[in-house]
């Protein structure tokens, strides 16, 4: 594919996603609860309200208001949380590290296990371990994330009491304000169960995907040719076959970002993990509109950014996508 | 196409398919007959007695014979709530797939037949929607609806909202499947012939192309019901789906989750087992159907 | 001692629950140093199977069930994987049929060449690179130096096959097995690639097994010929002799079917029927349903390979008249 087409597609997608999200965000900000009531309370008279409405620009035409909303949003002003009485974006960003570290933990687990697992199952198709993994993976796909999470909480948190099952534990504040759980034993211990839960559907899915792609690659002519050249088995498997399975894996990985974000909400709810997803559900229950909007916009942004990174990685590992001007 | 006899023969020779079929049939019958065979009507507040709350299953210490699988915090029998809850999960799952199917087949036919910018626009849209994920779209949509409407009003319409939102969010799966079979069929002779004799495009699409794309649609439908049930369960678990007084399997798990730490594990465990059994049975059947009906995999052994 | 000796080579694939079906049903061949052998037959005759079986590269779930492949005095089929890897791509190279799928799409040409050298030689990257460029020049690839960084999709089919040939030549092998090396290419460059292979083999005294379904090519390139039908060798001998005086009715038919052997304007000859699938072979000689000379004897038993032909009723002295007419 040509790089220009690629960029256009990328930009098109980003614009549509952000446009829809901003439109949703904008159109609900006034309709969910009364912003005036939240600002000034009930005691103000109807005339004063109208004056205030005018001053706040709530009587302006739709497009003017939307333009203003966009202008503010671009500057990072997504309104003030009714509950926290702080800028919504700040409240969200405070919770970002918790979610980020949870996702990182899950990604490490499912990539760390699915790649060797998938390759093993592809190469040793008929061994009992491979068959067991494949059976377990179809069962794994059928167990919803929140059930896995509950099971882990109940088994390791309540019955056995081996691992903490709630919250992040002890965190350490890095100089730039990032609260990390990676630097304390307690923080790491708290990360284990939630990360396993979050990776529990991705893991079987990726094992099956990598196995299927690897098996296909092992049957190709170029892998046979690589063997005919007298290359060592590891080189044939990991350089020739596995390099080719990476392309579909990265593509599917890109398609899973939205699912992964949705699963963080479920996982954080079960483990009361103080991240963005947990915050979002609290905001929904409290009808904290600015916070809801801020969450949606931040998630949309993360989605667009990660998707771009995934596409970029794809171009890096796929020689058929080349930058223009590069020597052909 | 495979004949019915052949289909039945394949089914009867595969123990996994038979097992999945029996489990699914059992759960469906149980759900359909719930109003007549359930020991208790969990919707009828008069039948509930708060004194009966959190009773363990009948075979354990303190269990009550009337409640085989114990009771929940409101004194509802877990067995009865599961019977009714399975029904609600199934209605939402099947309803959502019908919405998906109608939307997806129509848009997929249109995209595949028209081609050009219609096709690229719809497919780009499908890409974006698929990578945003159904669950995420549904969470946001339901969160907004819940915030916008009064909780009681919401509870009345929850079942329709779930069907429609999961239906709309998942249309790309059907659309893509149909589109690719349309592209395969479009240039075949019978379609050309229909066009040549002057049939209008809409008629060619619906009468001539559609029937030939139904096999893959059937194959993904089963898996899609499983997915829709999982999505609904996740939404209900988050408190964005069915309310606890009209529970689906997901909301039963949600209401039980709080009590897992006080030792009342049965309120969560049994609905969870039924949910997993239901989804697993559908997934296994879906996989089996794909293997049997997919001509690509079938080639060479008939 | 012959360079390569194949004795009673059999390859089978599993079929059904326990059964097996033979794709290669006992093949013998002998190849001297620098000799060029053509293996001819319709698709499905087991030609490619023979090529892969020689290097013990039969794809699962197929397996070599019997026989020996002796290369320079050693049996390749009983060697350990480590030992045979020293031969594959080093002393015996292969050229595959379709260059579009032979090269790995995600690795550069340079990587795929250098790794071959490094698998067999202790050599620095710089030396390896230089040697690879030399070979690319040898197979007449323009601007060879810059092709090292190119990826397969950036080259045409003809160029890719040249790269594959260059890879085959990298380690100065004693034997090259070329499995229909021009079938997948444009007609216009088939001759070029074929003469390139012939020249390189001649100049470097490399033995060649050329697998093809094209008797015309074989006549130009090879000294010896083997005709395969349904997993067996039905006729073998000097290429010239078989072309001039084919003995097996199948060989006669193949020659008759060559366009240059039919009268201008006349309808092209075709052997009636088609080769039976290996899963459903007739009794006796597998060719008998298509053979004009078949008798009850042919239907009852498989004729042994004697004097270079496996037929109860070979065409001895009398070559087909049509063939003679146009020579």
How does this structure look, described?
The complex is a heterotrimer of chains A (328), B (302) and C (327). Chain A has 328 residues and is mainly alpha-helical. Helix content of chain A is 73%, strand content 1%. In chain A, a hairpin with a 5-residue loop joins strand 1 and strand 2 (179-180). Chain B has one domain: Orthogonal Bundle (MetI-like fold), CATH 1.10.3720.10. Helices cover 73% and strands 0% of the residues of chain B. Chain B has helices at 4-12, 15-32, 34-37, 78-114, 116-132, 134-148, 151-169, 171-186, 189-196, 201-237, 249-257, 266-293, 295-298. Chain B is elongated. Residues 296-302 of chain B have low confidence and may be disordered. Chain C has helices at residues 47-54, 81-87, 99-102, 109-120, 125-138, 144-147, 157-169, 187-204, 215-221, 239-244, 249-256, 296-300, 321-326; strands spanning 4-15, 19-31, 36-40, 63-71, 74-75, 92-95, 175-179, 207-212, 224-229, 232-238. The chains are: A mainly alpha (328), B mainly alpha (302), C alpha/beta (327). Chains in contact: A-B, A-C. The interface between A and B is large, with 47 and 40 residues. Chain B: Keywords: Cell membrane, Membrane, Transmembrane, Transmembrane helix, Transport. Chain B: It is a multi-pass membrane protein. Chain B: Residues 86-286 form the ABC transmembrane type-1 domain.
Task: Give the key terms.
heterotrimer; B: 302 residues; mainly alpha; MetI-like fold; 73% helix; C: 327 residues; alpha/beta; Rossmann fold; 2 domains; 6-stranded mixed beta sheet; 4-stranded antiparallel beta sheet; 13 helices; 10 strands; disordered C terminus; transport (chain C); ABC_Ni/Peptide_Import (chain C); nucleotide-binding (chain C)
State which percent range the strand residues of chain B make up. under 5%
Broad shape of chain C = globular
Q: What is the subunit arrangement here?
A: heterotrimer
Percent helix range of chain B: over 70%
Form type of chain B: elongated
- Beta-strand segment tally of chain B: 0
Pairing-aware structural class of the strands and helices of chain B? mainly alpha
At the fourth level of CATH, the homologous superfamily of the largest domain in chain C is P-loop containing nucleotide triphosphate hydrolases
Structural class of chain C: alpha/beta
CATH homology superfamily of chain B? MetI-like
Kindly give the count of domains of chain C.
Answer: 2
Most extensive protein-chain contact, per-chain counts: A-B, 47 and 40 residues
Question: What's the level 1 CATH class of chain B?
Answer: Mainly Alpha
Run of helices and strands of chain C: EEEHEEHEHHHHHEHEHEEHHHH
Low-confidence stretches of chain B: 296-302
Strand order of the largest sheet of chain C: 6-7-8-3-9-10
Count the beta strands of chain C.
Answer: 10
């Amino acid at each position: 594919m040509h790089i220009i087409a690629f960029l256009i597609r990328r930009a098109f997608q980003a614009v549509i996603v952000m446009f829809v999200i901003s439109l949703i965000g904008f159109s609900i900000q006034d309709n969910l609860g009364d912003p005036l009531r939240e600002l000034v309370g009930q005691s103000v008279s109807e005339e004063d309200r109208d004056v205030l409405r005018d001053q706040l620009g709530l009587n302006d035409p739709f497009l003017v208001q939307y333009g203003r909303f966009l202008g503010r949003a671009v500057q990072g002003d997504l309104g003030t949380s009714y509950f926290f009485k702080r800028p919504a974006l700040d409240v969200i960003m405070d919770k970002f590290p918790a979610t980020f570290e949870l996702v990182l933990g899950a990604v490490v687990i499912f990539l760390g296990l699915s790649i060797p697992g998938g390759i093993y199952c592809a190469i040793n198709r008929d061994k009992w371990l491979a068959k067991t993994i494949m059976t377990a993976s179809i069962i794994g796909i059928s167990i919803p994330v929140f059930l896995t999470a509950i099971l882990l909480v109940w088994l390791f948190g309540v019955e056995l009491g081996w691992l903490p099952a709630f919250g992040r534990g002890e965190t350490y504040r890095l100089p730039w304000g990032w609260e990390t759980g990676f630097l304390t034993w307690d923080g790491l211990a708290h990360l284990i169960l939630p990360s396993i839960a979050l990776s529990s559907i991705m893991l079987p899915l990726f094992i099956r995907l990598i196995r299927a792609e690897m098996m296909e690659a092992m049957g190709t002519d170029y892998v046979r040719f690589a063997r005919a050249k007298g290359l060592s088995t590891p080189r044939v498997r990991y350089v020739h076959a596995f390099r080719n399975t990476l392309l579909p894996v990265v593509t599917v990985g890109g398609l899973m970002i939205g699912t992964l974000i949705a699963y963080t909400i479920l996982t954080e709810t079960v483990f009361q993990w103080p991240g963005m997803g947990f915050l979002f559900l609290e905001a929904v229950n409290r009808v904290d509109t600015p916070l809801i909007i801020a969450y949606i916009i931040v998630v949309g942004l993360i989605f667009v950014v990660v998707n771009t990174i995934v596409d970029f990685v794809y171009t890096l590992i796929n020689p058929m996508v080349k930058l223009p001007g590069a020597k052909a | 196409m495979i004949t019915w006899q052949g289909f039945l023969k394949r089914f009867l020779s595969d123990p996994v398919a038979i097992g999945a079929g029996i489990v699914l049939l059992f759960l469906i019958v149980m759900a359909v007959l719930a109003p007549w065979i359930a020991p208790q009507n969990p919707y009828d507040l008069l039948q509930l007695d708060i004194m009966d709350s959190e009773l363990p299953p009948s075979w354990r210490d303190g269990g009550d014979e009337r409640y085989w699988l114990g009771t929940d915090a409101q004194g509802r029998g877990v067995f009865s709530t599961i019977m009714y809850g399975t029904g609600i999960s199934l209605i939402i799952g099947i309803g959502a797939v019908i919405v998906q199917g109608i939307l997806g087949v129509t848009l997929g036919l249109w995209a595949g037949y028209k081609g050009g910018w219609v096709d690229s626009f719809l497919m780009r849209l499908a890409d974006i929607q698929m990578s945003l994920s159904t669950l995420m779209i549904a969470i946001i949509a339901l969160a907004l609806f819940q915030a916008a409407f009064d909780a009681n009003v919401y509870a009345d319409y929850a079942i329709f909202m779930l069907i429609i939102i999961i239906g709309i969010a998942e249309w790309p799966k059907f659309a893509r499947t149909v589109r690719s079979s349309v592209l395969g069929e479009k240039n075949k002779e019978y379609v050309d012939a229909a066009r040549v004799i002057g049939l209008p495009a809409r008629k060619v699409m619906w009468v001539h192309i559609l029937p030939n794309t139904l096999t893959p649609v059937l194959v993904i439908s089963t898996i899609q019901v499983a997915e829709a049930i999982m999505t609904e369960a996740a939404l209900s678990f988050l408190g964005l789906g069915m309310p606890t007084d009209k529970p689906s399997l997901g909301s039963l798990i949600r209401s039980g989750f709080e009590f897992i730490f006080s030792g009342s594990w049965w309120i969560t465990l049994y609905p969870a087992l039924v949910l997993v059994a239901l989804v697993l049975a559908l997934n296994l059947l879906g996989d089996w159907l794909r293997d049997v009906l997919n001509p690509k995999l079938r080639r060479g052994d008939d | 001692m012959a360079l390569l000796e194949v004795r009673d080579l059999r390859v089978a694939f599993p079929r059904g629950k326990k059964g097996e079906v033979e794709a290669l049903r006992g093949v013998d061949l002998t190849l001297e140093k620098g000799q060029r052998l053509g293996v001819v037959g319709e698709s499905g005759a087991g030609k490619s199977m023979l090529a892969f079986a020689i290097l013990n590269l039969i794809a699962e779930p197929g397996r070599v069930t019997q026989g020996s492949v002796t290369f320079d005095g050693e049996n390749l089929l009983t060697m350990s994987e480590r030992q045979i890897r020293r031969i594959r791509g080093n002393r015996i190279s292969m050229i595959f049929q379709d260059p579009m799928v032979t090269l790995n799409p995600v690795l550069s040409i340079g990587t795929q060449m250098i790794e071959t050298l490094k698998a067999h030689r202790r050599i620095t990257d710089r030396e390896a690179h230089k040697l690879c460029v030399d070979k690319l020049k040898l197979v007449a690839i323009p601007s060879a130096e810059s092709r090292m960084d190119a990826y397969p999709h950036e080259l045409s089919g003809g160029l890719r096959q040249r790269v594959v040939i260059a890879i085959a030549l990298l380690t100065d092998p004693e034997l090259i097995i070329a499995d229909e090396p021009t079938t997948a290419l444009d007609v216009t460059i088939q001759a070029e690639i074929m003469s390139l292979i012939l020249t390189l083999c001649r100049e470097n005294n490399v033995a060649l097994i050329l697998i093809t379904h094209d008797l015309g090519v074989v006549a130009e390139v090879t000294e010896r010929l083997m005709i395969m039908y349904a997993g067996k060798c039905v006729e073998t001998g000097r290429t010239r002799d078989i072309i001039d005086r084919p003995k097996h009715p199948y060989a006669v038919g193949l020659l008759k079917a060559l366009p240059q052997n039919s009268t201008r304007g006349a309808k092209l000859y075709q052997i009636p029927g088609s080769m039976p699938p290996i899963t459903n072979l007739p009794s006796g000689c597998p060719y008998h349903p298509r053979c004009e000379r078949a008798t009850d004897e042919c239907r009852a038993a498989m004729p042994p390979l004697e004097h270079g032909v496996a037929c109860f009723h070979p065409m001895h002295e009398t070559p087909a008249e049509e063939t003679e007419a146009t020579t």
